[in-house]
Amino acid sequence: MLNEFTLFTIFNIIFYKMCKSEEKVGEAWPRRVVTGLQPTGELHLGNYFGALRRCVQLQEQGDDVMVFIADLHSFTGRQEAGELQPRTLQVAAAALAAGLCPERGVLFVQSAVARHAELCWLLACLATHARLAHLPQYKEKAAAIKEVPVGLLLYPVLQAADILVYRGTHVPVGADQAQHLQVAAQLVRTFHHRYGRAFPTPRALLPDDGSDRIRSLRDPSKKMSKSDPDPKSRILLTDSDDAIRLKIRKAVTDFTPQVTFEPESRAGVSNLVRLHCLARDLVPEEAVSEAEGLTSAQYKEVVASALCECVAPVRARLADLAARPHLVRDVLRHGAARARLRADEVYERVAELTGLRPPAALSDRLVN
């Protein structure tokens, strides 16, 4: 019998071939990268390496990058109204502090562009309950809630709308989000079959540096998370050097003193190696070589120093932007205006195909 991993791999291969086949027969779409960041809790190193820095790198290589603050998505969990705006500004400031250039890309708040929600409704009418309820993330989260909100079920549909409303071609995701992107691709195929071509099939940009697999410092079996009740489980972008050193010193490892990179059997030490690699742009073999002769306790000092050096400039820029929130608001306002222009163009095509608007030629005759 095939195990779950093998089935998932086979499905991904089939999915990839279907996307490539569709690209061959369809029109060429301009490359556009779209991604969102939720304003829930303070950002940590997992968010920085796995999302913010990746977006900056994509922008520097010439990609058209659109980054939005996913405030609508945050409502699948309980939100305090008074905290949403400060957190939204904080995430936007972190994107700018990480190096995202608003002149070369688009940074905006999701709810400032109504087309996200409008397209979400149309796509929701093409999705099936069985498909959405089968997703592992939904099943995991729903199992922990007594009364499951409908928004949790529709979460991947809104994600699809976030991407498709800008005709996003590529999405930086971790492996745990890959299935949500497959939902988006399935919705594209369904829409094209029923109404006609309107969107590209978005493809995942999976990291090859392990930045989507940063683990909790206190429990390496889990991902580093903003919602973890233990503050020592994560390193925040606002943490001082002393706080970073303390958290790394307290990081859970094991009883073997040598430093090796074995994620399956030595998750804690391997997590330190991965953080060292990301901070210094190394591969695991290089990091392990540098740690030769050191105990894991001594190696923690090396990792802490690398992280302090990496975080310091981002932390300084964050502090500067926190003192000037009007600059961040101006960037978001300008970004929303640009995003609305792009979304309106795509949605008008969708509305015409679905019959919500008359075809352009008929519209001209009605006006005249």
Automatic annotation (TrEMBL):
<dbReference type="InterPro" id="IPR050203">
    <property type="entry name" value="Trp-tRNA_synthetase"/>
</dbReference>
<dbReference type="InterPro" id="IPR002305">
    <property type="entry name" value="aa-tRNA-synth_Ic"/>
</dbReference>
<keyword id="KW-0436">Ligase</keyword>
<feature type="compositionally biased region" description="Basic and acidic residues">
    <location>
        <begin position="210"/>
        <end position="233"/>
    </location>
</feature>
<keyword id="KW-0547">Nucleotide-binding</keyword>
<feature type="region of interest" description="Disordered">
    <location>
        <begin position="207"/>
        <end position="234"/>
    </location>
</feature>
<dbReference type="GO" id="GO:0005524">
    <property type="term" value="F:ATP binding"/>
</dbReference>
<dbReference type="GO" id="GO:0070183">
    <property type="term" value="P:mitochondrial tryptophanyl-tRNA aminoacylation"/>
</dbReference>
<dbReference type="InterPro" id="IPR001412">
    <property type="entry name" value="aa-tRNA-synth_I_CS"/>
</dbReference>
<keyword id="KW-0030">Aminoacyl-tRNA synthetase</keyword>
<dbReference type="GO" id="GO:0005759">
    <property type="term" value="C:mitochondrial matrix"/>
</dbReference>
<keyword id="KW-0648">Protein biosynthesis</keyword>
<dbReference type="Pfam" id="PF00579">
    <property type="entry name" value="tRNA-synt_1b"/>
</dbReference>
<protein>
    <recommendedName>
        <fullName>tryptophan--tRNA ligase</fullName>
        <ecNumber>6.1.1.2</ecNumber>
    </recommendedName>
</protein>
<comment type="similarity">
    <text>Belongs to the class-I aminoacyl-tRNA synthetase family.</text>
</comment>
<keyword id="KW-0067">ATP-binding</keyword>
<dbReference type="GO" id="GO:0004830">
    <property type="term" value="F:tryptophan-tRNA ligase activity"/>
</dbReference>
<dbReference type="InterPro" id="IPR002306">
    <property type="entry name" value="Trp-tRNA-ligase"/>
</dbReference>
<dbReference type="InterPro" id="IPR014729">
    <property type="entry name" value="Rossmann-like_a/b/a_fold"/>
</dbReference>
